[in-house]
Write a structure and sequence with these properties.
Layout: E1 2-4, H1 7-14, E2 22-27, H2 33-45, E3 48-53, H3 63-68, H4 73-82, E4 87-89, H5 93-96, H6 110-113, H7 116-120, H8 122-139, E5 143-147, H9 151-164, E6 169-173, H10 193-199, H11 201-212, H12 219-229, E7 234-241, E8 256-264, E9 267-275
Parallel strand pairs: 1-4, 2-3, 2-5, 3-4, 5-6
Antiparallel strand pairs: 7-8, 8-9
Helix pairs in contact: 8-9, 11-12
The chain binds adenosine monophosphate.
Length: about 280
């Protein structure tokens, strides 16, 4: 495995591999099995697997959250190597945003205004779209692997890649969960045992909604079931939306995406589940 810190060095290392298929896994590090699922998907489909590790300051609206974000580079490099990553790109902030940096990639419309965009503010998805555009252009991979856990991020990145004509296919990998159902997240490490026990209401609420959706198509009725399960938690949003447009659904007809964000103590958690289109009898 080769680790590089500049875009120039990355291009040089990748040049001889361009005949084969290149896959990239963008991350903010502090790797867990969710990230490794993305690596395994890339490894299964690509000749060369690139991982990027960059804690992107521009997508954090909260300076304390950025400060506290876990940085575990040695552990990440060991896991990346053990799981078959060929090249790790670890840029510093000054490599990604050199003096004079003045460009923002901003995806307009409901897909960035609702849910995470509403809670975290406009700058969040501007930060995500700009850094992902820059990373995808640096690697010019055939395929980029993203987690279904960040469902809105997938919608925004897919739109951005189509709009800018970036020649990289976006592949989505299912959410990895702990045995108790909690979606793996770098932020889970901050939960106390008591908070973690309370956080389990999140996957339970999603499962209860998915389960009830086999007999109930009214979104309000499904959300009431989810809210009952989440009682006592600080819920930022619980919504049932169109999986592509992210618009609110009142009735489940086609596929639906159930999205939730909660705060447990000082930790913010998001999760989602897709309800497939129910085939009519
Ligand atoms: P992050 O390092 O949190 O920015 O995540 C990097 C990539 O890993 C993103 O595409 C995430 O959606 C994905 N990811 C994070 N957690 C999980 C998970 N539990 N299962 C699958 N993918 C995940």
């Amino acid at each position: 495995m080769i680790a590089v810190t500049t875009i120039a060095a990355l291009r040089e290392v990748l040049a001889p591999t361009r005949g084969g298929r290149i896959g990239v896994v963008p991350t903010m590090g502090n790797l867990h099995e969710g990230h490794l699922d993305l690596v395994r998907a890339a490894r299964a489909e690509c000749d060369t697997v690139v991982m990027t590790i960059f804690v992107n300051p521009t997508q954090f609206e909260d300076a304390a959250d950025l400060e506290r974000y876990p940085r575990t580079v040695e552990h990440d490099l060991a896991l990346a190597e053990a799981n078959g990553v060929d090249v790790v790109f670890l840029p510093g902030v000054e490599e990604m945003y050199p003096d004079g940096f003045a460009t923002t990639v901003s995806v307009d419309g409901a897909i960035t205004e609702v849910l995470e965009g509403a809670v975290r503010g406009r700058a969040h998805f501007d930060g995500v779209a700009t850094v992902v555009a820059k990373l995808l252009l640096a690697v010019l991979a055939d395929v980029a692997y993203f987690g279904a856990k960040d469902a809105q991020q997938v919608v925004v990145v897919t739109r951005m890649v189509a709009d800018l004509g970036i020649p990289t296919r976006i592949a989505v990998v299912p959410t990895a969960r702990d045995a108790d159902g909690l979606a793996l997240s770098s932020r889970n490490a901050r939960l106390t045992a008591e908070e973690r026990a309370r956080a389990l209401a999140v996957p339970r609420a999603l499962a209860a909604i998915a389960d009830a959706s086999t007999r109930e198509r009214d979104a309000a009725a499904l959300l009431a079931i989810g809210r009952a399960t989440l009682a006592g938690l600080d819920v930022e949003y619980l919504e049932i939306v169109d999986p592509d447009a992210l618009t609110t659904l009142t009735t489940l007809e086609g596929a639906a995406l159930v999205v939730v964000a909660v705060r447990v103590g000082a930790t913010r958690l998001i999760d989602n589940v897709t309800i497939p289109r129910r085939s009519d009898p």
